Amino acid sequence: xxxxxxxxxxxxAPPTPAERTAHRKALLEWIGIHSLGIAAALxxxxxFVFVFLTSLMSDSQALSRDLIPHTWEWDNYRRVFDTPGFLxxxxxxxxxxxxxxxxxxxxxxxxxxxxxxxxFRGRNLALMLVIxxxxxxxxxxxxxxxxxxxxxxxxxxxxWPLIIPMAFGDAFSxxxxxxxxxxxxxxxxxxxxxxxxxxxRTLLKVVLPMARPGIAAVALFQFFYAWNDYFGPQIYAxxxxxxxxxxxxxESFKGAHHTDWNLTMAATVLVMAPVILVFFFAQKAFxxxxxxTGVKG
Length: 297
Fold this sequence. Notes:
This protein is mostly helical. The protein contains 13 helices and no strands. It is flat.
């Protein structure tokens, strides 16, 4: 019978002073980075926590020194929905956000595709015009635009002056999509054309499936803009409460309940919740689309 001899393990050498210093430095860096991350997370999270907890307080406890509700008043949210006009504001906001986003994406994709993949005289000039439109504040053209929509077409008191222009593209969406489409190799487009695909079919069958992250990023940007838009509804729809959106109606709600801060906070939570949920479920596509738009100019 063969006897197996066990070789004793050599004792581990104690760390040298240089190794101890490096380990201590790495530990301090880890603690510092994570401390900054936790502090930043608390900085951005605590205001939402405060708003949510205040929305569940009673009328007498709201904005007191207490941070935790004595009784969780979930009925505050029902009282907000029972406010006259609140459901109308929801419906108008959903209509404005979804229809505006769809029109912006549909109208911006062909322009971005042409600027990214077509070679034609004046392409750089067209791109410069798109960039210059991004630099133009909307307040500069609001007076002639209002006169056109209100006096010529008589559409004041509605959201159509905000929705119809989205059917003609958006400078920021065109530029963002163009930047993303330039990351798609031209070989895919050339191969599709060799197989007999025209420009429209190449866009629909080849380019769009590869551009989903960029399209998702543009759609989210536009949806967030429309959902939070206050300036536009104030200009065109302020005279008609039936056309108010949540962002503009919330100001009226706060004025009517300026002493009921728990109801104001509950209404604020209801306005913020859809945007937070949309970003939570679509953040992967959003981050990927925004990241890849800067890979190639």
